[in-house]
Amino acid sequence: MSDSGSKGARGRLAQAQRIVVKFGTHVVTHHGREFALGRVFALVEAIAGLRRAGKDVLVISSGAVGLGRRALKLDGPLSLGLRQACAAAGQGRLISLYTQAFAQLDVEAAQVLLTQDDLADPDRALCLRTTLLRLLELGAVPILNENDSVSVREIVEQRGTERSTVFGDNDGLSARVAAAVDADLLLLLTDVDGLYTANPRSDPEARRIPTLDALDGEAFAQALAGASGTSGAGTGGMRSKLAAARIACEAGVDVLIVDGHAERLLERALAGEDIGTLMPSPERRNRRRRRIALARCEGALVVNEGAIRALSETKASLLPIGVIAVEGNFGVGGLVELRDPSGLAWGRGMVNYDSHACRKLAGHHSREIDRLLGWRGYDALVTRDNLILQDLPQEPDP
Ligand SMILES: Nc1ncnc2c1ncn2[C@@H]1O[C@H](COP(=O)(O)OP(=O)(O)O)[C@@H](O)[C@H]1O
Ligand SMILES: N[C@@H](CCC(=O)OP(=O)(O)O)C(=O)O
C-alpha cells in the first residue's frame, strides 16, 4: 500500500464507530496465569471512555484457561480435557473481574459465550447479532469468549499435511463477530507490536510491517510465511491473527494488530499513530446491507399502508400486524421482498420467523405471538437492522 493510502487508512480509524477489541491471553494475564490487573483495568477505563464518547465497543477476551489453571493449581502441559476444565473454572473469574471493573465506571458488562458453530448456523448467528446490537443500544459492553468446554475444532496446519486438534481460536471468533455486527474496526491486542517480517522473538532482524493488504494474495502469502506460532500460553500465534484479519477485511472491517502492553494504546491507535500493523479493508462499506440488497429473495411479505408509512417515516421494525399476506417458503434468517398490496416491491429484509410462522402471525398483534405459535421469539417479523428500503440513499463511503 502506498504511504498516502496507508495514512488515509490510519486517519479513518478515528471515525470508527463500532469497534471489536480482542484481548489475547498474554494481554489478560502475566505468564498465561495471573490476571494482569493494572493492564486490563487500564483498558477497561479506555473502553468506558469510548462508550461515553458514543462508540460501540465489544470485547473478546481470552484468559479463562490461564485463570482456571491457576485456580486449579495445574502446572505443565495440559491435555485437551484439562484445558477445557480450566476454561470452565476460569471463565467465572474472568467475567467477574470485567463486570466489577466496568461497574466502577457505571458501564454494564454482559457475558456472551459462543462456539464457531453458533456463527455458522444462520438462526443462531441472527440471534447473536440481535443480542449484541440490543446490548450496545442499552449502553452495555458485551464480553465474549469461546465456550471452550464444549468446543473443539480440527485445523490443518499450513506447513504440512499433519492434522492437529486445536482448541479455541479467539482471533477467528473475533473476526466473525466483527463481521456479524458490521464493525468498522477490529483491534487484535497481543504481546507484540504487530506483524513482523519474521517472529521477532527468534529473529533479531525482523522488522515491523506497518500496513498490509490482507486481500492481496501475494502480500498475504509472504506475510504468512514469516509468521509462526504462539509465544506461550496463547493459541495460534500470528498465523491465526493473519487468517482472522483476512476474514474481517473481506467483511469490510479494518484490522489493527497492536501491542496490548503499550501505554494508552486504544487512544493512540484511534488517533492514527503509526503503531502495530494495519490491514485496511477496501470493502469497508456496509456489506450486510449490500448482501440484503443483492441476494436472492426466497419469498415476500405483503404489507399494509400503515406499515409502509411507519417504516418509511420512522425507524420502526416490521411487526406482524402490518403484514397482509406471506408468499413462498423460507426459513428463519431468510431473505424476503417487502411488497405493497399492488405488488410493488419497496424493500427487503431478513426474517425472524420462518414462512410457516409468518403465515400464522400475519395481521395479528405481537402480544398474540405466544398464543398463535405456542412460543415466543421477537416482536417483529423483520427487525429494523435487517431491513432496507429500496429508495433509501446508499450510505456514503467513509
Ligand atoms: N511474524 C511474526 N510477527 C510477530 N509475532 C509473531 C510472528 N510470528 C510469530 N509470532 C508470535 O506470535 C505471538 C502472538 O501470538 P499469540 O501468542 O497467539 O498471542 P495472543 O495470546 O495475543 O493471541 C508473538 O508473541 C510472537 O512470538
Ligand atoms: N478461550 C481461551 C483462549 C483461546 C485463544 O484464542 O487464546 P489467544 O490466542 O491467547 O487469544 C481462553 O479463554 O483461555
Give me the count of strands: 16
Instruction: State the CATH topology of the largest domain.
Output: Carbamate kinase
What is the CATH class name of the largest domain? Alpha Beta
Low-confidence blocks of residues: 154-165, 392-398
- Structural class label: alpha/beta
Bound molecules: adenosine-5'-diphosphate, the ligand N[C@@H](CCC(=O)OP(=O)(O)O)C(=O)O
Distance between the termini: 18 Å
How much strand?
15-25%
* Strand line-up in the sheet with most strands: 5-6-4-1-9-10-11
> How many separate domains?
2
Oligomer: single chain
Average pLDDT value?
87
Largest sheet at a glance?
7 strands, mixed
Q: CATH homologous superfamily of the largest domain, by name?
A: Acetylglutamate kinase-like
Helicity range: 25-40%
GO cellular component, one term: cytosol
Catalytic activity: L-glutamate + ATP = L-glutamyl 5-phosphate + ADP
EC number: 2.7.2.11
Function: Catalyzes the transfer of a phosphate group to glutamate to form L-glutamate 5-phosphate.
Feature tags:
single chain, 398 residues, alpha/beta, Archaeosine Trna-guanine Transglycosylase, Chain: A, domain 4, 2 domains, 7-stranded mixed β-sheet, 5-stranded mixed β-sheet, 16 strands, binds adenosine-5'-diphosphate, binds ligand VHF
